[in-house]
Amino acid sequence: MPTLGPARKSVPERYPRLRLAIILIWAVFAAFSIYTMFEDPPIDALCAVAIATMALLPGYLWADGRVRGLPILPIHILTLLWTYALPLVAGHPEIPLYDPEEIGSATACVLLYAILASAVWAVISVIPAPKRFRFRVLPMDRGFVFFTLAIFAGGVFTALAIDQLIELDPGVYGIVRSIALTLATIATFMLSIRLGRGELSIRQRTLFLLAMLFFVVVQLATLYLVASIVTLASALIGFTIGSRRVPWVTVVLALLIFGFLHNGKYAMRERYWSEGQETAAKTWQIPGFFAEWIADGVRALGTGREGLGDVPIFQRVSLMHLLLLEQRSTPVAVPFLAGETYAIIPRLLMPRIFDPDKPDSHQGTAMLNMQFGLQNAEDVQGTTIGWGQLNEGYANFGLAGVAGVAVFLGLLFGFVGRLTAGAPVMSLESMIGVTFCAVALQTEFTMAVFATVLFQSMVVLALIVPFLELRRADETA
Q1: What is the rounded CA–CA span in Å between residue 439 and residue 398?
Q2: Which of 51, 300, 341, 408 is most buried by a 10 A CB count?
């Protein structure tokens, strides 16, 4: 692989099957958008195709070997496909509330974001990196054991939290949680890359897949789908990078399963959260719990009832309607936040053990929801509505905020991607890179959550450094 091979290569490799997959995705999306023009305003389809083109372009450039290093920015920009492009043509109920001029303005904003971020990333990524002859790495066999145990430990921690068996000071609990879940996320991505490259034996593949299945199932038991979706998405992206192909069967199967679980999720929440608790089931109740969930999913599909549970996943992940809302509202009806959601970041980086009263990392999300009247102070104590960094930038400074966020992320993702170019798969550089890949996939993070998660992840990686071995590049295979 050009990004994670055992030694630095002078000529980047290409991924022809990935290029073909990207072209096919664009063609299918464009055909579907054209089809919708028979019933919906043509401007919606045209804007959706424009966003989809820019969402897929960085990935195509990476797959074509134009840019080396892990595809951190391409992963981030790819999320625009389902958060901004798809809602325009998939029947999102709030899109028709806006006129063509507003749709065009929002599309221009998204394109500005994608173009600026991609341009900065491309320029940074192609700057030749200093040649390195030594890397800090985990040996392959020891690394497999470490990462498999990390995934299993993440599942055990989540299970103990579900069973309310962890009695720690809130500050200490936050540190332990960050270490456990960060290592599990990194381990999932790293071993998925090795799985895709065919570097795992049958026994290792079995142990890895069992550990990951355990982790995902326990995450699902919380009735928050997002954590398990991100875990599985990280694994699929890692496998795609390693194998140079998209595992279509697994992707389609995962979409069908999560779509089915989404249908039954709200009935389950009504049943298990009726007393104000958000822990759905104890670990020993999981078999019966999932039997109920399957029954609720089947019932929701069979009855066609109207309700929140019938909202399709593509509507739940939409961010386009929020951008349209803030563009219509600001600055006349609702003033810009002028950096308020960013001002809390320095304090969030302080461990809670030293600052017990520091704000929650999702306070920026709560501020956005209350600013635009979507939730009140009581509502945000429960489930909140995610906004994403593009929308957050606009809510603070308008187009200037969007441009600023795009340039910042283009620089950050470009430099980190450049760091991973030519690095061995089990190196510290690759671990840093996959951490950024996992965070780049998160569509609803505000900058406060983004900064907090990355800061905590880097601290966790720093704890691993003493256990790495310093080896020459030709010894790291």
Answers
A1: 24
A2: 51
